[in-house]
Amino acid sequence: MSSQEIPEETLPSEQGAAHSAVERADDPFADPGLPAHRPRVQDIDERAAKRSERAVASLFLLSMLATVAFIASFVAFPVDKSLYIWPLGHISILHFSLGMTLGIALFGIGAGAVHWARTLMSDVETAAERHPIEAPPEVKAKVLEDFAAGAAESGFGRRKLIRNTMFGALALVPLSGVMLLRDLGPLPEKKLRSTLWEKGKQLINMNTNLPLRPEDIVVGSLTFAMPEGLHEDSEEFQVEIAKAALMIVRIQPDEIKDKRELAWSHQGIVAYSKICTHVGCPISLYEQQTHHVLCPCHQSTFDLADGARVIFGPAGHALPQLRIGVNAEGNLEALGDFAEPVGPAFWERG
Q1: Is-contact 203 246, C-beta < 8 A?
Q2: Which of 119, 170, 195, 285 can bridge 244 by disulfide, Cβ–Cβ 3.0-4.6 Å?
Q3: CA gyration radius for the chain?
Q4: 292, 284 Cβ separation under 8 angstroms
């Protein structure tokens, strides 16, 4: 192609410019420079800037409303209720509402911040040379100056609507995390302080579902029992047996060291909670020579001949004992509930 065929506006005006162009073509890392700055519509039209401001404020306001809805959903919807939503199927209303509202709350803050930065904050690109890590005083002064200029250009102090709604959204979102602390579990209230055992309830063998008689319990054996009236097919069986499960052993009366244990037994037959006082595992291992029972989870060991006190392991206190006797039919029966809550300690036990 000859020089006559090249448009006049593309011809270099000087020989030096032509030489520089050749250098840029040969150097793949040449600095291409910055394109000319093109102002946005918000930079030249205050009405457009106001519309962007209202859009950002609306996103922050949406985040605030979603956070309030998150808290309301946490309180209003029970955890066991489900809802059919196509194509997801049956899902928990609580989980769906919590996920949607928290997602909208976080999206509102993020989208509002991005829209603010792209439409209202300064978009002028500047190039800065790299310097050593330790900045000299003039650079520090320049950074502070740029920060002040950026704050002024962002309109943070001038656009109060954006500022106030952003503060509101950021202040409300952490409440979602605080509300989640409630999901550590329901408050135990007084539900853990009592069981189904009460005066007159017979001890039912969990293997035969028949009432236990003193002659059924032999020295050296370990028998498990549940309260009369509790059935395995009932809806509340797992909840109630977790508190009322009982283990029964027979010890020679002269081998029982604890006076209260002896008084609460019947002919050497003692009844203790089966629930370990460490983390609530069921105790099932019995050593008949020493009268020790062992929790298989963390090896907490209790001496059933001495008030079921802890002799080894992480359990914090002895197993609760159930006072028992014999009714008119000759069957073993409870003479009341446990004197203290069964299982591990809990913060409301007090």
Answers
A1: yes
A2: 195
A3: 38
A4: no
